[in-house]
Amino acid sequence: MRLDKYLKVSRLIKRRTVANEACDAGRVSVNGKTARASYDVKVGDEIEIAFGNKTVKVRVTKVAETVKKDEAGDMYEMI
Question: Cα–Cα distance between 25 and 21 in angstroms, integer?
Fold first, then answer.
């Protein structure tokens, strides 16, 4: 699954266009490297997102095309 879609489905970022812009701006890194929106997310990847002065770091535990709102938190674990 593409990185921008994963960020939207897991609800780490609210909209896919915003996720795409964050990737283009270099604010999203996967396994320590700046990642593009087209990066293929796999289980075990560590994603780091810079939100202004706050940074969120998560590890991917599940990849699913669709997920219910209350199950979105199961797709990742905070580090």
Answer: 6
- pLDDT, tens digit (0-9, with 9 covering 90-100), for 8-26: 999 999 999 999 999 999 9
pTM of the model: 0.94
How far apart are the C-alpha atoms of 68 and 60, rounded to whole Å?
17
How far is it, in rounded angstroms, from Cα 60 to Cα 78?
A: 9
Quick check: 44 and 60 in contact, CB under 8 A? yes
- Between CA 4 and CA 41 the distance in angstroms is 9
Which among 5, 79, 4 has a CA at the least distance from the CA of 44? Answer: 79
d(CA 65, CA 63): 7
Dump pLDDT digits (tens) for 31-54. Answer: 999 999 999 999 999 999 999 899
- The separation between the first and the last C-alpha atoms of the chain, rounded to the nearest angstrom, is 21
